[in-house]
Amino acid sequence: MSIPATMRALQQTSLKGPQDMRLITDAPVPRPGRDEVLVRVAAAGVNFADLSRACGTFGNGPQPPYVAGFEAAGEVVAVGEAVTGPPPGTWVAGVGDGAFAEYLTLPAAAVMPVPAGWSAEQAIGLVVNWPTALAALKPLGRVAAGQTVLIHAAAGATGQAAVTLAKHYGAIVVGTASPAKHETVLALGADHVLDSRDDDLAAEVRRLTGGAGADLVLESAGGATFAASLAAAKPVTGRVVVYGLAGGEAALTNWELVYRYQVHVVGLNLGVLSQAAPGIFGEVMGELSALVAAGVVTPARPVAHDLADGPGVLAGLAARATVGKLALLP
Ligand SMILES: NC(=O)c1ccc[n+]([C@@H]2O[C@H](COP(=O)([O-])OP(=O)(O)OC[C@H]3O[C@@H](n4cnc5c(N)ncnc54)[C@H](OP(=O)(O)O)[C@@H]3O)[C@@H](O)[C@H]2O)c1
């Protein structure tokens, strides 16, 4: 297959938001480095972090102009000189800069094969949302059967994965979501669903747990909800795994940890986890593969849009108007 010199791509031109993301048709097709593969993108995953990057709130994010997107699935079409596999013709999913494009390069050692019988589009989410949810629940959150888990943005891509896994591990799940998404959360098996815009979520969680509080909180809401998550966790043994701040930054002081919220606060960043704790990350990915084989993790059905619609898709994510996984097709 011949590889063109230029391609369609979505380029972010400022840090003012996705309205400054534009389609270009002359982006250079990247060349794979020594340890990289070149992938023809079949589907790119849209993540909340794409919005954070476009708004300049992502930690150490790319500087404009840059080709947006970082999650893709597609076919390997060329490999760097030191690559021993996967060979051209293999379908893979992976994380690398510049996914909102027709081609991107990925580190050969870090790509995941698209599961047998799945399309590339169905594999979207396997390298971002599912491992994040699994890491939050298991190695970091230490979920156990019978424990109560509070999951924010439960109708979102990461939240849906978390609800599915938490139920698989035998937890009692309390999800939060905007009211229009409550049916989706309950259909995934959540035991309870609360309005994510409710001012007193902590009181609702205590009511549902007989006053005890949640054993584990998956905190991605941020803003004012962050304090509610701390207050909703069970004193002394409750864990709050913080992996997102959709609603903005929020502070926590040592005074509050001593006198107000006696909980375990754990930060999670999947990229750092994979680099700094490869053993834990390997266990997460190994367990994920086993869950795919067992049929617990099933093919995604992302809401797919044309690449050119990327800015509008990100605006919908910012407006809390989306449900489940979103994909862009180049
Ligand atoms: N740390 C990591 O490595 C990592 C990896 C993956 C994802 N994440 C984080 O996980 C969270 C979910 O990511 P995702 O890509 O799966 O997105 P998503 O959940 O599909 O969409 C975001 C959802 O967050 C909720 N939300 C609450 N407050 C919001 C606000 N002020 N503005 C916008 N949305 C708000 C909304 O749900 P409701 O309206 O239903 O409440 C919204 O639909 C994000 O915070 C993301 O940064 C972190």
Task: Please name the defining characteristics of this protein.
globular; single chain; alpha/beta; 2 domains; 16 strands; 330 residues; six-stranded parallel beta sheet; 10 helices; binds NADP nicotinamide-adenine-dinucleotide phosphate; Quinone Oxidoreductase, Chain A, domain 1
The unreliable regions are none
Number of strands: 16
CATH architecture of the largest domain: Alpha-Beta Complex
- Class inferred from helices and paired strands: alpha/beta
- Percent of residues in beta strands? 25-35%
Bound small molecules, which ones? NADP nicotinamide-adenine-dinucleotide phosphate
Mean pLDDT: 98
What string, H for helix and E for strand, traces the elements in order? EEEHEEEEEHEHEHEHEHEHEHHEHE
Helix content: 25-40%
Q: Helix count, per DSSP?
A: 10
Shape: globular
**Main sheet, how many strands, which sense, barrel?**
7 strands, mixed
- N- and C-termini, Cα separation: 18 Å
Radius of gyration: 20 Å
The CATH superfamily of the largest domain is: Medium-chain alcohol dehydrogenases, catalytic domain
Oligomer: single chain
Enter the CATH topology name of the largest domain: Quinone Oxidoreductase, Chain A, domain 1
What's the number of structural domains?
2
